[in-house]
Specification:
Number of strands: 8
Largest sheet: 4 strands, antiparallel
Distance between the termini: 13 Å
Shape: elongated
Strand content: 15-25%
Strand order of the largest sheet: 1-2-4-3
Order of helices and strands: HEEHEEHHEEHEEH
Radius of gyration: 19 Å
Number of helices: 6
Structural class: alpha+beta
């Protein structure tokens, strides 16, 4: 390893991974990112209860409460660009101080449609993997990248997306583990572009 400040004209640079450009923020990428984050860490609910004016009232809610503000800022921006405005609100839950929320039935339905419509384009796959990694992924000091989830359908969608983008992996009981060491981890981060900086510090 050589400090970048000591590089001179004519020095050769050896890449650990094939350089890849940052993915474009297309509508498909945004939908994929929102789907990954919300399916990993978000909550959508529809609750019926006895009302004062009607026999039944229905309460609709979308809530994303996480400690990493990069996730909240990115999800809020992408949802706004997709036509769904949500508000950040203060909450008091351990390390979590903010949540992205809406209780408007139309907006909750729009978000529900976004997260339950898996698409096959590579842009969508990149966004989905970035979002689900931000929500559920780890990259540890022993250079192991995993994306966790207990839901076998979600693990299957992660596996399908990894395979579509040419990554090798192992399906574990509650995670997908990327193969290929640091070079493939670098390619994963470059191809998908997760937003949470602390999860990439081991690179």
């Amino acid at each position: 390893w050589v400090n970048a400040s000591r590089l001179k004209i004519g020095n050769k640079i050896h890449f650990l991974s094939v350089p890849v450009g940052m993915p474009k923020e297309t509508k498909a990428y945004m939908r994929g990112y929102v789907a990954g984050v919300v399916r990993g860490d978000g909550h959508i609910g529809h609750y019926e209860y006895g009302g004062r004016r009607r026999e039944k009232d229905t309460q609709n809610v979308f809530r994303l409460a996480v400690k990493d503000k990069e996730i909240l800022d990115t999800t809020q921006r992408f949802l706004q660009l997709l036509g769904v405005d949500c508000s950040l609100r203060k909450v008091h839950c351990g390390p979590i101080s903010l949540a992205l929320e809406t209780r408007e039935a139309k907006k909750v339905e729009q978000i529900s449609e976004i997260i339950h419509s898996m698409e096959s384009s590579n842009d969508y796959r990149r966004g989905f993997l970035a979002g689900i990694f931000d929500a559920e992924g780890t990259y540890t000091k022993n250079l192991t990248l995993r994306i966790y989830n207990r839901n076998q359908i979600i693990l299957g969608d992660i596996a399908t997306s990894l395979d579509a983008l040419g990554f090798k992996f192992i399906i574990e009981r509650e995670a997908n583990r990327l193969l290929g060491g640091v070079s493939e981890a670098i390619r994963f981060f470059g191809t998908t572009y997760p937003r949470v900086k602390r999860k990439k510090q081991a690179i």
